[in-house]
Amino acid sequence: MNIPYETRRRSLFSCLYSLRESLPGLLAMFFIALFSNNLAGNPNPLTLENLFRWLDAVIGPINHQPLFQILNSNFVWNPFLMGLVIGNVFGVPDCWKRGLSFIHILMPLGIIMLAPHFMFSHAEKAGLPLILAAFAVMLFTASLTMLLGRLLRMDDRHYATIAGALSTGDPHVVAILMPMLKSKGGQVINALGCVLLFGLVTSFLLPLLGHALNMDDKAFAVLSVFGVGNTGQTFNAAFGYSYEAGHWAHYVEPVRHALMPAGFLFVFFVMFIRARRYPHAENVMATKAHKTLPLFIVAFIVAWIAVQFHIVKEPAHLAIFELVKWDFSLAAAALGLSLPLREIAQWGLRGVVLAFASGLARLAVLVGCLLAAAHFRFPII
After folding, report:
1. Virtual torsion, Cα 150, 154, 160, 165, nearest 10 deg
2. How large a percentage of the chain has pLDDT more than 70?
3. How many Cβ atoms are within 10 Å of 362's Cβ, its own excluded?
4. Cα(first)–Cα(last) distance of the chain, in Å?
5. How many other CB atoms are found less than 10 A from the CB of residue 346?
6. For the segment 324-348, what is each residue's pLDDT rounded down to a tens digit?
7. How far apart are the C-alpha atoms of 168 and 150, rounded to whole Å?
8. Are 355 and 169 in contact (CB under 8 A)?
C-alpha cells in the first residue's frame, strides 16, 4: 500500500531518502574521498594527494612552488577529478544517484563551517590602506565581470560564478557559490577551469611585465596577490620575479584571504536583489530558486561575524577545517560522479573570454595605481 508522503512525514528530515536507498551513493562518495586526499582519521597512504606530492618531488619546484600547487590541486579538485573520471569512463549506476543527491546538504553545511577560516585579524598587520585597496579591487573585479558577462549575453549563473571566483582570487569559490546561485554543475566546473587558466597564464607572464616596468619588489608582490589571486599561482608569479617579491607576497596574501567572504557575498547579494527586482525575466536565473534569503547564508554571516571576536580558538579552528575538508571532498566526489563531460563543454569559450577580459582589465588598473604610487612616493606596504 502506497502511504501518502504527508502521512509518513515526521520532521523536516522526512524529505531525505532512507539509508537503504542512499547507502550505495554515499559509499561511492566516501571511498573516492578516502582515496583522493589525506583526510583526518584516514591512514590510507594510497591517495591522489600523495601521488601528486611524489610527482612534485620528482619534477622539482618551479619558482619555489610545487607544480601541483600551481595547478591548484587540493581537497576539492582531487576528489572531483577522480569522480569525473570514474563517472565518465565507467558510468554511474542508478542506485548511486539518491546518495549523490546529498551534495545539496553537504555544500551548505561546509559553507557554514568555513566561517572560522576567514579571520580578519590575519590581515590587520598589513595596515588599513592595503586592506581598503584589496576590498576596492575585489568589488571592482566582481562588478566588471558581471557587467561584461551581461554584455556577452551569458547565463547569469555562469558569469556570476566566474565573478565570485575571479574577484576573490580563489577558483574553489565556485563550490561555495554553487548552492548560493543555484548554478549548474557544468557552469561551476567551466568557471573553475576558466579562472585557473587565467591564473596559470598570468603567473608566468606577469614577471616579464614587472621587469619591463622595473617595478619595486613590494609593488610587484601586491600586483601578484591582487592581480593573480590563487595562492600557488600568486607565489609562482612573485618568486618568478624575485625572492624579495615572494617574501612580500607572503606578507600580503592574508589580506586577500581574510576578505574573501566579502567578495562572494557581494556577488550573491547583487544577484539575489536582481532576481527580486525582475522575478519574471527569462534571463534572470541566478538565485531565482531562493524564495527568501537562505538560512545557511544567514548562519554563515552570523558565524563569520562571531568568530572575529575569537570565540573559536586555534585548535578548534583547525579541527573544524578538517571537517570542512571531509565535507567538501564528499561533495566534490558527488559532483564529479554526476557530471558528464559534455555538460562542462556545452558552456563554450565565453567563460574564458570573460575571465581573461576582466582579469586583464584588473591588472591594467592595478599596474596604473602601483606606478602612480611609486611616482608620488606613496608607501605600498
Report:
1. -120
2. 96
3. 22
4. 72
5. 12
6. 999 999 999 999 999 998 888 888 7
7. 20
8. no
Nearest to 226 by CA among 66, 73, 374, 367: 367
Which of 163-172, 306-315, 329-338 shows the lowest mean pLDDT across its residues? 306-315
Amino acid identity for residue 304 in this structure: W
pTM value? 0.92
Distance CA 90, CA 107 (A): 25
Strand segments (E) across 108-160: none
Map residue 65 onto helix, strand or coil: strand
Cα angle 317, 318, 323 (rounded to 5 degrees) comes to: 95
Burial of 299 (0-12, 13-18, 19+ CB in 10 A): middle
The H or E element that residue 46 is part of is none
Chain position carrying cell 606577469? 206
Contact 198, 215 (CB under 8 A): no
User: H/E element holding 44?
Assistant: none
Cα distance between residue 47 and residue 34, in whole Å: 7
Backbone angles phi, psi at 62, to 5 degrees: -115, 115
Specify the residue for cell string 525575466.
281
pLDDT tens-digit readout, 257-270: 999 999 999 999 99
